[in-house]
Known about the structure:
single chain, 6-stranded parallel sheet
Amino acid sequence: MKTITLNHRPLDLTSPVVMGILNVTPDSFYDGGKYLSETKVIGRIRQIVEEGAGIIDVGAYSSRPGAAFVDEKEELGRLAWAVELVRKYYPSVPVSIDTFRAGVAKEIVGCLGEVMVNDISGGTLDDGMFDFVASSGVPYIMMHIQGTPQTMQKNPVYDNVVADVRRFFTNRIARLNAAGFGTTVLNTVSLMKGAFILRVHDVKEAVEAVKLVGRLK
């Protein structure tokens, strides 16, 4: 059985799990501005759960190319508000927060309990992230970006994109291991290649895909 522990509860990843996205930011590329009131956020949380997601991923800082800068205080406020609503209405549903800031992650965990940390930068935008993950033991999802959301599409350069990104993850995982981090990075591998988490906007469709792939296997 493949499991990770979150908030003192085991999360079974023997079968793939869908992670539904809740964006509480006005400028996300997919659904920016749709979930800025409490009623709308609660409705989105309910939709994610009822459509079959096993994890809710909350984002408060858009990572679309050219996204507006959000300061740490604003990001923390948005995240805390949304995570509190998840905890209030669906306390048993695991929560992930989409942040590259160690300070934000630390505050959320300290105030609201353990969450997964989904870091678009793979620890490159905040030198304190790996130390936080190692000391807290929270599950950590590592992603890759060149630059920041503001600069990521300004002449990104790869010699060989597959090899370069693979090298990035190899090096970053080595640093995590050196810091004492042991959680599997679950992000870029397809279901057919063995992924156990799908992070998506379209929860219903992803759940159906998991069922179909499961039948094929």
